[in-house]
């Protein structure tokens, strides 16, 4: 049972984001990136399946600053093979990312066959599409998204997909398949720094050159800006004690205490 | 503009989802600007009476097929792809719900066009469609032209009000036929939520925790505050993913829709997926260390500060006041 996980990084929104000089994209000069959280869950789900069924987990990423740390951490967690696609500038189009991943999957020896391709169901920068469905379409494989549980048996993945209001649905998906992971069955595992350092010494990251792909052209960003605020909270200032007192007064005035 | 504006109606377990009416309201505006008819597409099985609720559209295209009874995105996408090829709409608006998003992305993949995501507003200007899309967890908005034909556009919940999209007008229903092959993916059953210890949808006072709560141990601070108010603790997605709170306590897109009298938010930045579930709360107080957190555009009162300090201070003040 072999699984390929697709991962990309996204801007860390804990940091202040600024618009670049072109007015159409993010200013990348001081941009900090982190793993797309849903992709991290996809990796964890793959590792949970490996724990249960054996097999190999391969992680494929687009190159990015600090991506080697991400890949060595994944290797320390139990990933068997880490591959990064080099020679890509900051990819700000999901359609372009799909083309890059799709081309590399098709042309790189030994990435296929696998039983499952897992990736995060969405990312905060997915302006022109989501990753999993078009990858599945390219391969001619079935796809299911918003997945939170995966059970494998006899060429079938039984998956649970989230709807709304806590209602979920159970599906049988024949493998090989592509799944968009919303959340792994358990939180992404912690790995001690010492284990990551050991992985850095004993394991290697493979690289493949980015194929030449045409950028997506049918979605054109005219302008990027911070949201225009139509309403804003009345801000309460002071020490924790002060604001607690102010909130208490407000609640009393509204008849909530 | 060549081609009509379509909205994909979402019907689920015998009901038209509220977001359908939001899309009808937005689609009505866009169709008016473009000078073309608005058409709603309803896919289902024995669901004709639901089509009658969609009178805000000029026409309802209703496809009745036994294979459309269950939520199987590839069937719905295949049906839409057939109708799109026959009728050539300019744009197809798809609800950005967990149920419908897969229909939109599979459809876009089949038609080899982008799926324009996170759209909160859409305008037609001459022959162009211009969308406003929410990115980076609500921290940026992109103004985007979508020139694909058709443009497949995922519309965020709350783009317009439900009331705007309701109509007493009798829907003009056109029955359309679709031919569907056996799907690769098989729907087995719904899993309804297990009975919860607390029904957060019925609580007047909720204390919601997010990533800013940092550790499971700190949940106690939120529980103390909720107890002082006579309410309950709920959470955003990261807290549920960590296993710190059960699924029944999740507020937002996949979780519950709550409308309490008071919603106190500790360390929640205000991603659209969470706001969707709590924006109708009567009084919202947000505590967050990030002064630029989008939640301050939604909350009534805000505190830039450490939730781990404010929560216990507030608990003490409330206890003292209540005696």
Q: Summary?
A:
The complex is a heterodimer of chains A (257) and B (323). Chain A has 257 residues and is α/β, with parallel strands linked by helices. Chain A contains 6 helices and 13 strands.
Written overview of the protein:
The complex is a heterodimer of chains A (257) and B (323). Chain A is of the alpha/beta class. Chain A has one domain (2-209): HUPs (Rossmann fold, 3-Layer(aba) Sandwich), CATH 3.40.50.620. Chain A has six helices and 13 strands. In chain A, the strands form two sheets. Chain A has a nine-stranded mixed sheet, sandwiched between helices. In chain A, strands 2-3 form a two-stranded antiparallel ribbon. The longest helix of chain A is centred in the first third of the chain and has 17 residues, at 37-53. Chain B has helices at 18-34, 48-51, 73-87, 101-111, 219-229, 237-241, 272-278, 307-322; strands spanning 5-8, 11-12, 15-16, 38-44, 59-64, 91-95, 115-125, 128-135, 140-146, 151-155, 173-176, 186-191, 205-209, 232-235, 262-266, 283-288, 301-304. Chain B contains eight helices and 17 strands. Chain B has two domains: 5-176, HUPs (Rossmann fold, 3-Layer(aba) Sandwich), CATH 3.40.50; 200-322, 3-Layer(aba) Sandwich (Rossmann fold), CATH 3.40.50.1220. The mean pLDDT of chain B is 95. The termini of chain B are far apart. Chains A and B meet through helix 4, strand 7, strand 8, strand 9 and strand 12 of A and helix 4, strand 7, strand 8, strand 9 and strand 12 of B. Strand 13 of chain A pairs parallel with strand 17 of chain B.
């Amino acid at each position: 049972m072999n699984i390929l996980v697709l991962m990309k990084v996204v801007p860390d929104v804990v940091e202040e984001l600024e618009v670049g000089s072109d007015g159409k994209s993010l200013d990348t000069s001081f941009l900090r990136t982190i793993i797309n959280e849903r992709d991290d869950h996809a990796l964890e789900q793959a590792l949970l399946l490996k724990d249960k069924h054996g097999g190999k987990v391969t992680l494929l990423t687009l190159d990015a600053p600090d991506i080697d740390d991400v890949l060595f951490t994944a290797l320390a967690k139990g990933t068997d093979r880490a591959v990064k696609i080099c020679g890509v500038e900051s990819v700000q189009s999901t359609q372009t990312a799909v083309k890059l991943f799709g081309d590399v999957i098709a042309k790189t020896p030994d990435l296929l066959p696998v039983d499952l391709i897992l990736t995060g169901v969405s990312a905060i920068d997915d302006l022109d599409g989501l990753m999993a469905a078009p990858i599945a379409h390219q391969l001619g494989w079935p796809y299911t998204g918003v997945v939170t549980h995966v059970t494998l048996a006899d060429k079938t993945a039984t998956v649970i997909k989230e709807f709304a209001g806590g209602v979920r649905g159970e599906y049988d998906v024949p493998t090989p398949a592509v799944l968009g992971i919303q959340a792994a069955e358990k939180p992404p595992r912690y790995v001690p720094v010492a284990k990551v350092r050991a992985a850095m010494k004993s394991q290697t990251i493979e690289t493949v050159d980015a194929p030449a792909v045409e950028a997506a052209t049918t979605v054109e960003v005219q302008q990027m800006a911070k949201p225009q605020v139509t309403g804003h909270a009345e801000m309460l200032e002071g020490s924790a004690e002060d604001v607690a007192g102010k909130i208490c007064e407000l609640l009393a005035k509204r008849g909530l205490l | 503009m060549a081609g009509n504006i379509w909205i994909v109606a979402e019907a689920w377990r015998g009901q038209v989802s509220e977001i359908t009416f939001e899309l009808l309201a937005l689609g009505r505006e866009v169709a008016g600007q473009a000078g073309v008819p608005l058409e709603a597409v309803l896919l289902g099985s024995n669901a004709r009476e639901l089509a009658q609720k969609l009178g805000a559209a000029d026409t309802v295209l209703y496809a009745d097929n036994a294979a459309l009874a269950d939520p199987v995105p590839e069937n719905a996408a295949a049906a839409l792809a057939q109708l799109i090829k026959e009728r050539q709409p300019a744009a197809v608006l798809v609800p950005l719900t967990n149920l419908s998003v897969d229909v939109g992305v599979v459809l876009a993949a089949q038609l080899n066009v982008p799926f324009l995501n996170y759209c909160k507003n859409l305008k037609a200007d001459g022959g162009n469609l211009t969308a406003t899309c929410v990115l980076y967890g609500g921290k940026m908005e992109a103004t985007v032209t979508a020139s694909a034909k058709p443009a497949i556009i995922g519309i965020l919940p709350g783009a317009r009000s439900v009331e705007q999209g309701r109509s007493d007008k009798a829907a003009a229903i056109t029955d359309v036929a679709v031919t569907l092959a056996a799907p690769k993916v098989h729907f087995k059953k719904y899993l309804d939520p297990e009975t919860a210890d607390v029904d957060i949808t019925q609580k007047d006072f909720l204390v919601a925790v997010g990533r800013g709560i940092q550790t499971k141990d700190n949940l106690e601070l939120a529980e103390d505050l909720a107890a002082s108010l006579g309410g309950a603790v709920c959470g955003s997605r990261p807290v549920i993913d960590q296993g710190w709170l059960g699924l029944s306590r999740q507020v937002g897109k996949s979780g519950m829709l709550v409308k309490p009298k008071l919603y106190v938010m500790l360390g929640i930045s205000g991603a659209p997926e969470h706001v969707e579930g709590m924006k109708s709360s009567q009084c919202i107080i947000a505590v967050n260390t990030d002064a630029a957190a989008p939640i301050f555009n939604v909350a009534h009162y805000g505190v830039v500060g450490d939730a781990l300090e404010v929560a216990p201070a507030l608990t003490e003040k409330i206890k003292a006041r209540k005696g």
